[in-house]
Amino acid sequence: MSAPQAPAPPSRLARARRGVRRVVLRRRRLLAALLVAVAVAAGVRAVAGPPPETRALLVAARDLPAGHLLAADDLEERRVAPDAVAAGVVADPVGQLLSTPVRRGEQVTDVRLLRGGLLASYPELSAVPVRIPDAGAVALLTAGDRIDLIATDPQGGGSEVLLEDAPVLALPPETAGDSMGGGPTGGRLVVIGVTPELRDEVADAAVLEFLSISLNR
């Protein structure tokens, strides 16, 4: 009678299965907690629904003055809710002139820009914003009018005509932002066409002297 054979050793697969089973049994509480956490997170996400819809648009990256030619680094992208998009917002205002000051973070709308019509008619001129203290006189103007710009020394040094027959390019609406940058308050802002060689002189006079206008039409 032959001797009984010894049982065959367990295969590698069987040993691996036993090892996995032991690990699962030892850590079954941790695994159960993880499964519960995943289920809760999935439930919360299902209840919360999808994230709110937003729209990307360009806003001013910093405070910008009237008459500024917009460049790419003047703007930054921001996402807002669709109902927060301003009426008349311009998708890509790069290369256009501001007819009024714009605050940092403000959306650039069509009413803030000097549209190409009038400016394109004077390719040799630059658009320069000047504040005229006599708001009543500015109220008589319309875009396209011609004016003489007169500078008077506030210290009594006399007056001189800075510009003759300069075209009025835009009449920005009066806003609190028009005084941005520490300039004088009151009066009205007028954007006029100025030759490049007189641009700096007119800009300096707008700060240092009292400006008035004579309407030529």
What would you say this structure looks like, in words?
The protein contains 5 helices and 9 strands. It has helices at residues 12-26, 28-48, 116-120, 135-138, 196-208, and strands at residues 55-60, 75-80, 97-98, 113-114, 126-132, 146-152, 159-170, 188-194, 210-215. It has a 5-stranded antiparallel β-sheet with strand order 5-8-7-6-9. The chain is rod-shaped and about 105 Å long. Mean pLDDT is 78; it is low at 177-184.
Give me the secondary-structure topology:
Layout: H1 12-26, H2 28-48, E1 55-60, E2 75-80, E3 97-98, E4 113-114, H3 116-120, E5 126-132, H4 135-138, E6 146-152, E7 159-170, E8 188-194, H5 196-208, E9 210-215
Short description:
This protein is 27% helix and 25% strand.
As laid out across the biggest beta sheet, the strand order is: 5-8-7-6-9
Biggest sheet features: 5 strands, antiparallel
Distance between the termini: 133 Å
Helix coverage percent: 25-40%
Round the Cα radius of gyration to an integer and report it: 36 Å
Based on DSSP secondary structure assignment, what is the total number of beta strands? 9
What order do the helices and strands follow?
HHEEEEHEHEEEHE
Task: Enumerate the spans where pLDDT stays under 50 for 5 or more consecutive residues.
Answer: 177-184
